[in-house]
Design goal:
about 260 residues; TIM Barrel; 8-stranded parallel sheet; 9 helices; globular
Amino acid sequence: MIIDSHCHLDYEPMFSNLDNVIKRADQSNVKFMLTISVADKKYNNIIEITNKYTNVYGTYGIHPHEAKNHSKINKDIILERLNISKKIIGIGETGLDFYYNHSDKDEQIRLFEEHIKASISSKLPLIIHSRDAEDLTYDILSKYSKKDKLKILMHCFTGTKKFADKLLELDAFFSASGIITFKKSNDLKETFKSIPLNKILIETDSPYLSPEPLRGKSNEPSNVVLTAKYLSKLKEIEFDDLCEGTTNNFFKLFGKLS
């Protein structure tokens, strides 16, 4: 069994073809999917999807790109939104993106911290996006970790080994996406070789980041198998062991799914 720990099923071309997307995932032994929230206005679609499909769970969160459009979102509102459905099992994706800077840095930081506070209150995991913001991402997480135990999942991790080592000290988990299969991602491959299997999950981030040999095409949860196969070879372990390990890690972080 494989779990796609991060996909965006409310995005096209998947949203209008979900029955077939879910069927193809099941045929590929992808038995559970976590569909990720990025903006409040799209949250109803997340709820709709998780209500319709028994093997799809969801999150609530505001992507750092969207921080400028969510100035009123705070910890209490996040907690209210989480309580809409028991199938909402995580917070995010949240974090910092100083590569694109689609939102002001201070706005991103404020919203990131509100998500962290909601995670502490709800005891739900944080799904974190971090790009060109390694030092500040770590500093913020470290600050809150000194007082409370955080459940951290670094989504689509592409950071340095130094960053990964520091995050491991905070007991973080790391999700590998199709990027790990790209020919020029040698540093990332070495980093994932060094991350213990008991700290790794896998994802598609679909409809983005299709793994080789599908790069450039629209991604979907069934393709997480390609990433899992590549990662098992990279870490020199059996494919079944990689699937079992990453699935168990998902359950450790998010709890058992029915």
